[in-house]
Design goal:
Keywords: Hydrolase. It comes from Gimesia fumaroli. Its EC number is 3.1.-.-. One of its GO terms (molecular function) is 3'-tRNA processing endoribonuclease activity. By secondary structure, the protein is α/β, with parallel strands linked by helices. The strands form 2 sheets. It has a 7-stranded mixed sheet. A 7-stranded mixed sheet has the order 7-8-9-10-11-12-13, covered by helices on one side. α6 packs parallel to α7. The longest helix is centred in the middle third of the chain and has 11 residues.
Length: 244
């Protein structure tokens, strides 16, 4: 099973990273719709898409306005956008208001139910996370694989049971440890607690993403610190493809 990290940055894009979007092309499943959403047409393999939004901050939804042409040119048959009810209302009311973006793509906005059936006999569930304005994390369990996507949250240990034993954990790591105070102030995560979560939850692999765009170097979050705690940790990069 393949997942493509279309965007691995947070807040705003920089020359190295666009903001959050992950895609499982064979399944037609997408998590978040940040500025990297413009890359989705290059990876389309299905006629129907399911988009699961974690929340409605701009770095996770701006790309919804980028998909009008693929829909008008019949590149897909349907696009269902899942999210919490208040977040979906905010998107339709504000992002797609006439003064900002006058044409609303033909999305099927759907309030998140308790579980969602996804292609490949998978079951998706979600969990509320601690973040200003609220956010949710996702987990999908297939018969032979499992995946969790956790972003924009503080206190990673609070969702240990939710991610326990997944094959692949994709988790935000906006700050390095020396900025732990800022992580707490902004409702984000830093390196050591995320690595400890992966270790304690006994996940298969940890991928760190949603990186501070002001840190564009090769090691913005202290990857060796994470690997000392949980060796099977990698730093996500835009357009990285992972098998799990």
């Amino acid at each position: 099973m393949r997942i493509v990290l279309l965007g691995t940055g947070g807040y705003h894009p920089n020359e190295r990273r666009h903001t959050a979007c992950l895609m499982l092309p064979e399944m037609g499943i997408i998590f978040d719709a940040g500025t990297s959403f413009f890359r989705v047409p290059d990876f389309l393999q299905t006629r129907d898409l399911q988009i699961f939004l974690t929340h409605a901050h701009l770095d996770h939804i701006a790309g919804l306005s980028f998909f009008l042409v693929p829909m008008l040119t019949d590149q897909v048959d349907s696009v269902k956008v899942y999210g919490e009810a208040a977040k979906l209302t905010a998107i339709q009311t504000h992002l797609f208001c006439e003064e900002i973006f006058p044409v609303l793509p033909d999305y099927d906005f759907t309030t998140l139910p308790e579980t969602v059936a996804v292609p490949g006999n998978g079951i998706l569930k979600h969990l509320k996370l601690e973040h200003p304005g609220g956010s949710v994390g996702y987990r999908i369990d297939w018969p032979e694989h499992s995946l969790a996507y956790i972003t924009d949250t503080a206190n990673p240990e609070q969702h240990l049971d939710f991610v326990r034993n997944v094959d692949l954990l994709i988790h935000e790591c906006y700050f390095p440890d020396d900025m732990a105070e800022w992580a707490e102030k902004t409702g984000h995560s830093h390196t050591t607690p995320v690595a400890k979560l992966a270790r304690d939850a006994q996940v298969g692999k940890l991928v760190l993403t949603h990186i501070d765009p002001q840190r564009s170097g090769d090691d913005p979050i202290g990857i060796q610190v994470a690997q000392q705690i949980f060796p099977n940790t990698i730093l996500g990069e835009d357009l990285m493809e992972l098998e799990f």
